[in-house]
Amino acid sequence: MSGLFSLVMERSIAMEATPWSIWKVLCALDAYGTWNPIYPEAAGQLRPGADVHVSMRFLRDTPGPLTMRVQSVVHSKELVWTCSYAFPGFLDIMHCFIIAPVDRYGSRFMHGIRVSGVLLPLFAGKLRAVTEANVERMTTSLKATVEARR
């Protein structure tokens, strides 16, 4: 739910691929530059508590460096990472990725970015303009990448 101090951008898409096939692409951080418009660069280990260093298109279309903290990893099902600008509550980001099987050969990929904090009212318009478009592009690009590898 979006409000004065919280903005949520979500997408969901069906893919003709198994959860494992989607997971392999999602977790190959070194290949993000080939398909991921939100995070054109990413490096680190995907385990709870680990840091992943990313370049993120967030407030502008030029990527900037961020360190995301991995909160949850459930193989072929869920990945969640978070970060805070300056200190918690200032401007916080949570990005959740969920993969669910639909049938034997298909899956649903869902992801959402929640941005919250006291600075959000100042940046909400810019976030909607830049980040929302990149969330959509990431969704369709991941689908194209995964389905091309079948």
Structure keywords:
150 residues, Alpha-D-Glucose-1,6-Bisphosphate, Chain A, domain 4, globular, 2 helices, seven-stranded antiparallel β-sheet
Would you give an account of this structure?
The protein is α+β, with helices and mostly antiparallel strands and 150 residues long. It has one domain (6-148): START domain (Alpha-D-Glucose-1,6-Bisphosphate, Chain A, domain 4, 2-Layer Sandwich). Helix content is 25%, strand content 39%. It has two helices and seven strands, in the order βαββββββα. It has helices spanning 19-27, 120-148, and strands spanning 6-15, 41-44, 51-56, 64-74, 78-84, 92-101, 107-116. A seven-stranded antiparallel beta sheet has the order 1-7-6-5-4-3-2, with helices on one face. A hairpin with a 5-residue loop joins strand 6 and strand 7. Helix 1 packs across helix 2 (120-148). The mean pLDDT is 93.
Q: How big a fraction of the residues is strand? A: 35-45%
Gap between N and C termini: 35 Å
Mass-distribution shape: globular
**Which CATH first-tier class would you pick?**
Alpha Beta
Portion of residues in helices?
Answer: 25-40%
Over all CA atoms, what is the radius of gyration? Answer: 15 Å
Instruction: Please identify the structural class as seen in this structure.
Output: alpha+beta
Uncertain ranges: none
CATH architectural name: 2-Layer Sandwich
The CATH homologous superfamily is called START domain
> How many beta-strand segments?
7
Q: Provide the domain count.
A: 1
> Looking across the biggest beta sheet, what order are the strands in?
1-7-6-5-4-3-2
Q: Please, how many helices?
A: 2
The chain-level mean pLDDT equals 93
Order of helices and strands: EHEEEEEEH
How many strands, which pairing sense, and closed or not: the largest β-sheet? 7 strands, antiparallel
